[in-house]
């Protein structure tokens, strides 16, 4: 999800509507107001951040990702509640980012698309067994120098002892 978003931010630089006078006449733009104090937003911009990255809207992306995760992990009894509540959250997020001038509607759609692409890639990687292989390697790394319970039951500590 974020890989796609970062590629779009880099190769398709855009700016939020709040910076276009035509779409926001007289709008106060707090991140760029001269208050005499350096804000976290200005500091990030000065250190190489991109305050103009507007497409895709990862506000929408994270809200959608949260919704899909809630639905996937919910019990049957609570699934409808999470679908309704999560959908309201996504719609409210889209409403806020458009009203505040951070994004156009299409930016929100692009954020949603990034989530779907990222989810598709994650499912394909999971089907290939890469997640299980990584988990096994991680478990061996974390347990170096200690015995793994399943191996302790078999009395086979040779591999663990050789790793010490």
Overall description:
With 164 residues, the chain is an all-alpha fold. 64% of the residues lie in helices and 0% in strands. It has eight helices and no strands. α3 (58-73) packs antiparallel against α4 (76-99) and α3 crosses α5 (105-127). The longest helix is centred in the middle third of the chain and has 24 residues, at 76-99. The two termini are 39 Å apart.
Radius of gyration: 23 Å
Beta content comes to: under 5%
Structural category is: mainly alpha
Largest sheet: none
DSSP summary: helix tally: 8
Got a strand count? 0
Q: What is the terminal-to-terminal distance?
A: 39 Å
Mean pLDDT: 75
Oligomer state equals single chain
Classify the helix fraction into a percent range: 55-70%
| Elements, N to C (H/E) | HHHHHHHH
Coarse morphology: globular
Q: Could you name the ranges where pLDDT drops below 50 across 5 or more consecutive residues?
A: none
Describe the secondary-structure layout:
Layout (H helix, E strand, L loop, with lengths): L1 H10 L28 H7 L11 H16 L2 H24 L5 H23 L2 H13 L6 H6 L3 H6 L1
Helix pairs in contact: 1-5, 3-4, 3-5
Short note summarizing the structure:
64% of the residues lie in helices and 0% in strands. With 164 residues, it is mostly helical.
Keywords:
single chain; 164 residues; mainly alpha; 8 helices; 64% helix; globular
